[in-house]
């Protein structure tokens, strides 16, 4: 289980999420990209190896990017304006960014609400916040069981995958409300059953369980309410 900043740095400093848009991001990306194109100053929290910043730049986004990460190597090698920092205590002034986003970050520690409030704090009035996390639903138990049986504790992953640190749609609505964010779009996406289990996946696919409610990932786009 990840219980400290050191654990996060150790695990995620070694993980490479590849290039390109992930399948679960495809539905929200056009809207996300439009907002980014209208933004002058953008913050990514948990930039990793810069995958999304590179994608946005390739799609014509000309904003000034600030790329924050807990891992010193990631901050140092960021595509633009790398910053070493913690999502729970962002070292930026209030209302600094037109768009603040994180992709699979706020679930890594118990202070999820604090991190989301920090997203909101550094975003300008009327600006946008985008957050993705693993999603908790009725299908989560099946996915976690498959991970446990397949990987038998050997998977080098963080606790939200192996021990159920996922966030439900209802919980995200509450987080946004407490952070002063108005939700524009909130849904689950991605596979209901991991593709590594084709037989079980085929069985599930014949049942009308929409990925918008039972998918493995949650995507939330929100606007910061004016004072």
Describe this protein's structure:
This protein is α/β, with parallel strands linked by helices. It has one domain (5-136, 164-190, 216-224): Vaccinia Virus protein VP39 (Rossmann fold), CATH 3.40.50.150. The protein has ten helices and seven strands. It has helices spanning 5-12, 29-37, 51-58, 72-76, 112-121, 140-151, 159-162, 169-178, 198-205, 211-214, and strands at 41-45, 64-69, 82-84, 97-103, 123-134, 181-189, 217-224. Strands 3-2-1-4-5-7-6 form a seven-stranded mixed beta sheet, sandwiched between helices. Helix 4 (72-76) links the parallel strand 2 and strand 3. The relative contact order is 0.15. Residues 155-164 have low confidence and may be disordered.
Sum up the structure in keywords.
alpha/beta, 7-stranded mixed beta sheet, 10 helices, 7 strands, 34% helix, 22% strand, globular
Low-confidence regions: 155-164
Computed CA radius of gyration, to the nearest angstrom = 17 Å
CATH superfamily: Vaccinia Virus protein VP39
Considering DSSP H and I runs of 4 or more, what fraction of the residues is helical?
A: 25-40%
Q: Describe the biggest sheet?
A: 7 strands, mixed
Number of helices: 10
* Spatial order of strands in the largest sheet: 3-2-1-4-5-7-6
Order of helices and strands: HHEHEHEEHEHHHEHHE
Structural class: alpha/beta
Distance between the termini: 39 Å
């Amino acid at each position: 289980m990840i219980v400290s900043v050191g654990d996060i740095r150790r695990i995620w400093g070694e993980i490479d999420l590849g290039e390109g848009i992930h399948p679960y991001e495809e539905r929200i990306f056009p809207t996300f990209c439009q907002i980014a194109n209208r933004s002058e100053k953008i913050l990514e929290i948990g930039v990793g190896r810069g995958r999304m910043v590179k994608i946005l730049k390739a799609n014509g986004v000309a904003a000034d990017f600030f790329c924050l990460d807990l891992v010193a190597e990631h901050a140092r090698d960021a595509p633009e304006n790398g910053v070493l920092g913690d999502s729970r205590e962002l070292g930026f002034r209030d209302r600094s960014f037109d768009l603040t986003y994180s992709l699979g970050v706020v679930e890594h520690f118990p202070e999820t609400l604090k991190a989301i409030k920090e997203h909101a704090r550094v975003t300008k009035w009327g600006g946008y916040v985008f957050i993705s996390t693993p999603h908790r639903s009725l299908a989560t138990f099946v996915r976690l069981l498959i991970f446990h049986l397949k990987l038998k504790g050997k998977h080098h992953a963080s606790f939200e995958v192996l021990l159920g640190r996922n966030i439900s749609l209802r919980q995200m609505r509450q987080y946004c409300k407490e952070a002063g964010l108005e939700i524009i779009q909130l849904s689950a996406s991605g596979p209901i059953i991991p593709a590594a289990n084709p037989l079980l996946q085929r069985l599930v696919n014949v049942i009308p369980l929409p990925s918008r409610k039972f998918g493995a990932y949650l995507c939330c786009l929100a606007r910061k309410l004016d004072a």
